[in-house]
Amino acid sequence: MFPNKLYINGEWLDTQEMIQVINPATKNVIGSTPNGGEIEAKLSVDAAYTALKEWSKKTADERSRLLLAWHRLIEEHRDELAEIMTMEQGKPFAEAKGEIDYANNYIAWFAEEGKRIYGETIPASSPTKRIIVKRQPVGVVAAITPWNFPAAMITRKVAPALAAGCTIVLKPSEETPFTALKLAEFSQQAGIPKGVINVVTGAPEPIATVWLRDDRVRKLTFTGSTRVGKILMRGAADTVKKLSLELGGHAPLIVTANANIDKAVEGAISSKFRNAGQTCVCTNRIYVDESIADEFSNRLAERVANLKVGNGFEENVSIGPLINDRAVQKVMEHIEDAVKKGANLLAGGNPLEKESGYFIEPTVLTNVTDDMTCMYEETFGPLAPVSSFKTIEEAIERANNTPYGLAAYVFTENINEAVDISEALDYGIIGLNDGSPSAVQAPFGGFKESGLGREGGHFGIEDYLEVKYISLRLN
Ligand SMILES: NC(=O)c1ccc[n+]([C@@H]2O[C@H](COP(=O)([O-])OP(=O)(O)OC[C@H]3O[C@@H](n4cnc5c(N)ncnc54)[C@H](O)[C@@H]3O)[C@@H](O)[C@H]2O)c1
Ligand SMILES: O=C[C@H](O)CS(=O)(=O)O
């Protein structure tokens, strides 16, 4: 079930050292993958660079047909892929199936988008000149991805890269390598030629160092923490690589006095507790108008208390385990810090010894103030801190007071208020009465220290293209 070899140049390779993979719901070892290093990292660039010439010369139709063949295999094996994902990442099986569909929709979207890489002609100032603008593939792309979306964060990069005519070397998270390797297996079965996609599992630093230093790698695309994003940004400078960075977030959710409270509660549940609160766009702090703060908090706590926590394969489980012990500790530190500073615990608040997995109760805190760690540090767990505000201006100022700028949420039934607040928030993604804004058609990405560039939609292929113009002088 679990692929346990690297995928380089169409070959499945072993290494002497292996890295164990744990099921976070049981802490059992479910398999292991090669601990690839410098040698494998260089081999992967050799393969991608060799494959680039043929792959970039294929027509957009040819590349599209191969991407759609890959899409069909993923569709056929959706449940198998979802089972692997729940085993290695922990999310509920239904969420895992949803992620496979979401990931696969990126492949379908970019299989078509590759056919719309248009150029243009520009009127020249001389009658004997013509100016022709072309977009061409960047070249070899290095991709490094996180554990929280083991499929979607990969296809959101691989699909546009291949559609644009690039080839790619990919390092998935050491926590969740199997989904990536299984996707690679299906890409091979789909007929995507050797060297176009290469997957190197292993410790991140040695692999990234080789890729950053290799000037044949012309672009780095990274999804993960802002801390690591900054390390990679510095490393990419030496060879001036193009960069796409999808980094951390700290989403505010604003509920005004004009909100539909039931809609706001459901929006808070979906934006906060998806993937046990382990998404980059999860609500991290909730600001509620003081006139409805108690009513909102009590309804939210009532819903949260009914969320079932457990192994992702159990029926009706909404909250799976966190990815590891450090993640549980971080959430507990945020809860303890807030309570010590005066927050009230309205629901949850404890680790759960279920099957000895990394479980924690979904938690609601009220009477929260901005000096509490959870109000400025990414929690990345099922903790909903609620703070009240007096004026809309105050809410906007507090919501924008962060180095992050990925997602924000606004709940109000007043259209003028909705537009005013949405336009004043410094975030790349605004959920307006919508707790689940992510969509393959839309330009996903953030302001400030949440990243550079956009993934998804027609914006998402631009970052894999170079623009050149040809100045033609006629006789
Ligand atoms: N903006 C987005 O689209 C998005 C999506 C998912 C996750 N994230 C963010 O990712 C974080 C959680 O994911 P994570 O824990 O996997 O993040 P992480 O930064 O710890 O790891 C991400 C990837 O980087 C690798 N890595 C770690 N240290 C590295 C180094 N020194 N050099 C090179 N690579 C290194 C890891 O092996 C992994 O593959 C959160 O901050 C979350 O907000 C952002
Ligand atoms: O964790 C960040 C992902 O981008 C989540 S999603 O795209 O909103 O599903």
Provide structural commentary.
The protein has helices at 38-57, 60-76, 78-89, 93-113, 152-164, 177-189, 204-213, 226-236, 261-273, 293-305, 325-340, 392-400, 415-424, 459-462; strands at residues 6-8, 11-13, 18-23, 28-34, 120-122, 129-137, 140-144, 167-171, 197-199, 217-223, 242-246, 251-255, 283-289, 344-347, 351-352, 359-360, 363-366, 383-389, 407-411, 429-432, 451-452, 465-473. By secondary structure, the chain is α/β, with parallel strands linked by helices. It has two domains: 6-247 and 450-473, Aldehyde Dehydrogenase, Chain A, domain 1, CATH 3.40.605; 251-432, Aldehyde Dehydrogenase, Chain A, domain 2. Helix 13 (415-424) links the parallel strand 19 and strand 20. Helix 2 (60-76) runs antiparallel to helix 5 and helix 2 (60-76) crosses helix 6 (177-189). The chain is globular, with a radius of gyration of 23 Å. The mean pLDDT is 97. Bound molecules: nicotinamide-adenine-dinucleotide and the ligand O=C[C@H](O)CS(=O)(=O)O. The ligand O=C[C@H](O)CS(=O)(=O)O is lined by residues 148-149, 152, 279-281, 438, 444.
